[in-house]
Structures are given as structure tokens and as C-alpha cells.
Amino acid sequence: MIAGLERWVMSTSHKDIGSLYLLFGLSFGLVGSALSAVIRLELNTQRHSIMDGHAYNVIVTRHRLIMIFFFVMPMLIGRFGNWLLPFYMGCPDMAWPRLNNFSFWMLFPSVMCLLHGLFQGGIRSRWTMYPPLSHKEGGQMDAMIFSLHLAGLSSIFGAINFMTTITIMGPKGFSIYNAYLYVVCMLVTVFMLLTTLPVLAAAITMLLFDRHFNTAFFNITGGGDPILFQHLFWFFGHPEVYVLILPGFRMLSHVIAFSARLEKPFGYYGMFWSVFCIRFIRFLVWAHHMFSVGMDTDSKAYFSAATVVIGVPTRVKVFGWCAHLNSASIELTSEVVWAVLFIWLFTLGGVTRVVLSSASIDLLLHDTYYVVAHFHYVLSMGAVASLIMGTYYFFPIFTRVSFSTYYAWVYWIRFFVGVNLTFYPMHILRMRRFPRRYCSYSYRMTNISRVVSFGALASIFFTFVGLHGLNPAFNNLLVHCKYVLPGDASQFFGFQSKSHTFLEPPLLRPVVGRPYRLG
Prior knowledge:
single chain, two-stranded antiparallel ribbon, 519 residues, mainly alpha, 2 strands
């Protein structure tokens, strides 16, 4: 028992650490989903039913922080990144395995500090922590700031590890221009983490100094500017959206190209440069979250135009994915239908983003359920659908058994119905002028709110159906991969992975008219 505990606590194997990220992310994903169920139960009636306004704000704050920092990021970056990046790079492990282990275990004190605030009265200033409201919070706000510092350090250490692995651990002849799109998207993702998390750290440190050391960075009576905090926060917050969705892009490109039996994705260099365009343009659009603060007309015009421009690289990728679906006769496997669902949901969220890019329209839609529907279509359904797609596709490699195809289809159908029942009616709630952050409402909004609550609870229920379908008792495939030399080809043929990968570097094979590629 002690030896088994030592293996998991002190492991430096990228596969063990990826599995730890899986257990951590899944656990707190269920916690965040439970908090969303509590929110919908409260909104199922017109007046306060199970909590007051303060408790409602606390639950919403915890839901957002847990789902972003302790579910989506650990699952899409920590889990899949640790498991798959050495496969794609052809290296035995990450560049710094002990740092990899340390970055994971930093998440536990981080989440404990966050939960401490929940049990000590809670924080009602939402995950954005805007001053001056955050100045009036108690000691729970300090615990939340410390939690975000620890989570940020964990992400920075992991990003340094990923970037170093990509830049120096590739085989001879490796270049970013002949890398897999998975590696390209990972490089851009960790670059955005490294360049934006220090900005968030600076903002919340300045907030901490304002609270305890009599500074006035955001205190207008001392010459500060509370709008400065919003600029700093959204300079981190908008790239964070791409940090959460780019891992889905990289897995989708691989899954859909593999299903179409292509050596590399359709329009490889177009998708390559679209990802790199996002890397730079995302620095330029943060203030479209702030149209309602009273900025001047020229700034509104610039950020509106920049928001439309950043949609162009994303549409290039969507076009490339749709071209795969028309380039070959693709079997509708479980991962393919989840890929199609991801494309559809993400595109719908992108269409609502175009609406919100107009400053004049955003003034009408800001702080309404239209915005809630928009970012849930992109993240709650887009990122989560890509996560489930990757889980189904790589499940035999991770566990040596396959999943139940029947339960996978049942889960896909119920997920599609449930999430659209949850978030699509929120656009209608905006037409009825239902503001977000309110836990009571008038009688004429009751029916739509109850439909939304029913969809949310149904989605959470069928999440457990999907997890049940991953039970090895329902497997229809059992593969033992013992002798694969010189490297580990399980990644590319769907076999079980060995305990360690690429004990010697793989060979690069020349293809006439093409650059050197792994294989």
C-alpha cells in the first residue's frame, strides 16, 4: 500500500501525472456541476426558496472559479497535455518531470483556500473581483486571492515545462513547421498562459495591497482608478477563453483527420497560421468585455472591429474541419459525432459573439442572460464536448479497454438535448429583459426559467450515464500492446500505451515533396 501511495504521490511519469489530473479535474467538475444544480434549483421559483441573495452570489462565484481553474484547465491541459505531448514529440517524458509533479500538487492547497472561503461565509463579488465591491469583502477574499496565486503558479510551471518540452525535446530534424497541430496548439496555449497569468497576478496583488496596506491602485479617493483593474483582469480573461478552447481545437484536428484517413489535417498550413494569428490578435481585444464602463467612441470602434477580425482565424479552422467531413466517407463513431457536436455548438457560440462585438448592441445585452448563453455555448458545451470527444478517442490508449458504444450514443443524444434546453432559452430570457446575477424575477419568466432548470438537471443526470458507460464491465475491446519497437505507436493505432514511451528516439521518414514528419 505504501509503495502504491508513493508511486502516485511522488511519480514523475507523465502518464501517472496525467491520470492524477484526470481524477482531480473529474472530481471538481462534479463539484462545479453540483453548484450549478443548486443555482438552477434556486432559480426554479420566483422568490428565494433555498438561499438568500448573498448565498446565491457565493455559489455562482464558486461555480465559475471551480469550473474554469479546477476542471477545464486540469482536464484539457494537464490531463491530455501530459499524456499525449511526449507521444507527439517522440520523447520519453516531459523536460522537467519533478516540476511536472510539483505543478500538479500545487492545485490542492489552491482549491483548499478557495473552499475555505465557501465555508467561512463566502465571497459575493463574483469571479471578476471588481473593486470597490471586493474591498468590502472579509478575510475570505484574501483566501481567494491566495488560491488564484497558487493556481497561477501551478499553470506557469506547467506551461514552462510544456514549452521547454516542445522546443528542445523533439527528434532530429524536428521543426514547428512540420509538427502536428496538437503540438502547435499546445505551444500557443502555454505561450498565452505565460504572458497573461502574470498580469492577473499583478492585478490581484494590487487589490490585496489596497485592502491591507493602504495603497490606492483602485481606490478613487486616493487617486486610483477602479477601471484599471478591469483592464488588467480582462487582459488575462479574454486570452483565457482561448487557453480553454485551443486544447479542444488540437484534439479535434487530430480526431477528424484520423477519421477521414488523412496523413495530416486538411489545409494544414492555413490552420497552422490561424492558430498563430490567435496568439497575437488576442492581445488586442480585451476591452470588448468593458463596453459599458463609459469608454470613448473611438475605443469602442477599435475594439468592435478587432473582435470581428479575431473571428476570421477561427472560421478558417471551422472551414477546415467541415472540409474533412466532405472529403471522405467517415464512419459515425462516438468520437466523430462528438466532434460534429463541438463544431456546431462552437459555431453557434461564435455567431452570438459577432452580435456582442457591436458596442451599441453590447450595451443592451451586457449583464443579461444573452451573455451567459454565449460563453456557455463556447465553454460549457464547446470545451466540454471536445473533452468528451478526446476521452472517447484516447480511452483505449489510456486504459487498455474500450467504452460502451451504446451508452456513448445515449449520452450524446441526452447531452445535446439537455444543454440546448438549458442555454438556448436564455436568449429568449434576454428578449424578456431578464438580467443576470438576479435570483428573483417576475411571473412572466417562470416557464422559461423552469425549462432551463429542467435542462440543467437533466444534463447533470446524464453525465453520470456517460461516466457509467466508461465502466470496464461494458468493454468491447481488450488490447495488450507488449512489443512495439523502436517507439510506442499506440497513439496512432489505438492500442494500449506502454508504461513508458519512446525509450529511443523515433525515426523521421522523408516523403517526396513534403517536409520530414514523425512516423
